[in-house]
Amino acid sequence: MKKDIYTDAAPAAIGTYSQAIQSGHTIYLSGQIPLHPKTMMLVSDEFSEQVKQVFKNLEAVCVAGGGHLNSIVRLTIYLIDLTHFSIVNEIMAQLFQSPFPARTTIQVSGLPKGAQIEIDAVMVIDI
């Protein structure tokens, strides 16, 4: 059985998908881009600010699902420009504790609304 996870503290879905879906102890978080939850606009053109907002959005969905950022076990990061890879690492080092999530980073040619980064995640919680 699956359960829909939703919060106003993260941007509403801009398509036919849920912010997150829970199945048992596992919660699958849809990709987040750096939109402000209230305005649904990009927070900044600066890459580091976009990364921080994406993690704020993911954290809000994690909390709505009964977890937190360190409940995340898997991340997939989509970047327009792989030269920004080190910036993502620096910000993640401030937000996550070891053991860090498993992670894949993929370069893409474009993202919704002109975002430079999108991240989806999988987290595991205690029920």
Percentage of residues assigned to helices:
10-25%
SSE string = EEEHEHEE
Query: How many helical stretches?
Result: 2
**Head-to-tail CA distance between termini:** 14 Å
* CATH-defined superfamily: RutC-like
CATH topology call: 60s Ribosomal Protein L30, Chain: A
When the domains are counted, the total is 1
* Strand ordering within the main sheet: 1-2-3-6-4-5
| Computed structural class | alpha+beta
DSSP strand count: 6
Q: Tell me the CATH architecture.
A: 2-Layer Sandwich
Please give the largest β-sheet: 6 strands, mixed
Question: Mean pLDDT, rounded to whole units?
Answer: 97
Large-scale geometry: globular
Low-confidence stretches: none
| CATH C-level category | Alpha Beta
Instruction: Report strand %.
Output: 25-35%
Radius of gyration: 14 Å
Helices and strands in order:
Layout: E1 2-5, E2 20-23, E3 26-32, H1 47-64, E4 72-79, H2 85-95, E5 102-107, E6 117-124
Parallel strand pairs: 4-5
Antiparallel strand pairs: 1-2, 2-3, 3-6, 4-6
Helix pairs in contact: 1-2
Keywords, please?
127 residues; 6-stranded mixed beta sheet; 2 helices
Short description:
This protein is of the alpha+beta class and 127 residues long. It has helices at residues 47-64, 85-95; strands at 2-5, 20-23, 26-32, 72-79, 102-107, 117-124.
Describe this structure in words.
This protein has helices at residues 47-64, 85-95; strands at 2-5, 20-23, 26-32, 72-79, 102-107, 117-124. With 127 residues, the chain is of the alpha+beta class. The protein has one domain (2-124): RutC-like (60s Ribosomal Protein L30, Chain: A), CATH 3.30.1330.40. Strands 1-2-3-6-4-5 form a six-stranded mixed beta sheet, with helices on one face. Helix 1 (47-64) crosses helix 2 (85-95). It is globular, with a radius of gyration of 14 Å. The two termini are 14 Å apart.
